[in-house]
Amino acid sequence: PRPRRGLQSRPRPRLLPGPAEDTRGAAAPAAPAAASPARAPPLGSAAVGPEPPLSRSRDRTPGEGRPGALGGRSGAAPGPGPSADSPVPPAGKAQEEALQERYRLGSLLGSGGFGSVFAATRLSDGAPVAIKRVPRNRVRHWGELPDGTSAPLEVVLLDKVSSGCTGVIQLLEWLELPDSIVLVLERPERCQELSGFLAERRFLPEEEARGLFRQVLEAVRHCTSCGVLHRDIKPENILLDLATGQLKLIDFGCGAFLQDTAYTQFAGTLSYSPPEWIQHQRYHGEAATIWSLGLLLYHLVMGKHPFRRGQEIIWGRILFPRRLSQECQDLIKRCLSMQPLDRPSLE
Ligand code: AMP
Fold first, then answer.
1. Confidence at 206, pLDDT banded by 50, 70, 90
2. What is d(CA 218, CA 293) in angstroms, rounded to the nearest whole number?
3. DSSP-derived pairing of the beta strands 308-309 and 150-152
4. How much is the pLDDT for 205?
5. Which atom, in ligand 1's list, is nearest to the CA of 115?
6. How many CB atoms sit inside 10 A of residue 38's CB?
7. Any ligand 1 atom below 6 A from CB of 239
8. What is the average pLDDT across 103-116?
């Protein structure tokens, strides 16, 4: 294990040790999430964590956290970093207190195998934030921030994508407690998971779906331009700001550094994994992303996942209603090509 350095954050908290829970990789029982005073979409999706073998109960895998506000981006190296069991500085209590002094904790937004996410308010300026707490023993992958600080991979990835795109949730700061990692994230005051929004609307008119899909594409493109692969794109990981209509990609807990070569370990949600993973246990980042985007677009215009039947994935012919334009049908079909090379590029 490498020596851990202090936290870095905007305002600059320090490493804290803290309480723990369970995190990713483990099946996450669905938990209710109140994304805002307005609504509380059912959270809880199961996902598979980054690189580690999947494990998930529902659909998605949770992620890790980050201390301190990060700023820059740049190529942080995916170093192995300290393990979840590595020793931590004994500054836990002070850090915990510092956290409580600076934020007022509100309702639970979501919880599961990855830990818990709470709504909170930053006391200095009343800004709404989300506080995500991940037990240390659930953090399987560590990396390095640009300044050499060791941090959970989720923090490192968020650090890389956190500026320059409003479609990606911003990491404001992260802290390390004795037995948990705390991430303080931007939180739209009134928001809802896209999954909950779709469940209420059943499906969206194509024009509306187009605007939302475009926002997701721009966010994903931003991530890849920063060298980050999200790996768990699905309606549960997209927040809709109900005041502005803006979407925000959340939960980089299954993410990875973008690489040209094939990935041979899965992280994410099995029902969103591409056929090449199911059949050959390998996939390329962009092709797998396009597959999940095809599923997302189908979900937007049809109100459901095209293949999921319970926990099974059954590929088959995709049937579309007449109301869908040929262009929309064509785009979905191309994104859901069985052969990765037949799928369109992100561009
Ligand atoms: P995550 O583990 O990051 O997917 O978070 C679990 C749930 O907490 C999500 O599905 C959201 O409903 C909620 N959540 C996470 N991050 C935020 C955020 N920044 N603002 C509001 N809600 C959030």
1. very high
2. 12
3. unpaired
4. 97
5. 2
6. 12
7. yes
8. 90
Q: Please, where are the H alpha helices in the chain?
A: 92-102, 153-161, 194-201, 206-225, 275-280, 285-302, 326-335
Q: State the Cα–Cα distance between residues 136 and 152, nearest whole angstrom.
A: 9
Q: How confident is the model at residue 93 (pLDDT cuts 50, 70, 90)?
A: confident
Dihedral of alpha carbons 275, 277, 281, 285, sign = positive
DSSP 185-212: EE--SSEEEHHHHHHHHSS--HHHHHHH
pLDDT tens string 9-63 = 433 333 322 323 223 333 333 333 333 333 222 222 334 444 332 322 334 443 3
Which CB contacts under 8 angstroms, 24+ apart, belong to 209-213?
209/297, 209/300, 209/301, 209/328, 211/245, 212/240, 212/247, 212/300, 213/293, 213/296, 213/297, 213/300
Contacts of 329 (CB under 8 A, 6+ apart): 320
pLDDT for the residue numbered 237: 97
Torsion of CA 96, 98, 99, 102, to 10 degrees: 160
Tokens standing for 197? Answer: 């929004």
Query: Quick one: how far is CA 102 from the chain centroid?
Result: 25
Could you tell me if the CB of 43 is within 6 A of ligand 1?
A: yes
200 to 5, 94, 204, 211, 249: CA distances (angstroms): 46, 44, 10, 18, 20
Terminal Cα distance for the chain, rounded: 40
- Whether 147 is catalytic: no
Please identify which of the residues 22, 59, 159, 232 carries the catalytic annotation.
232
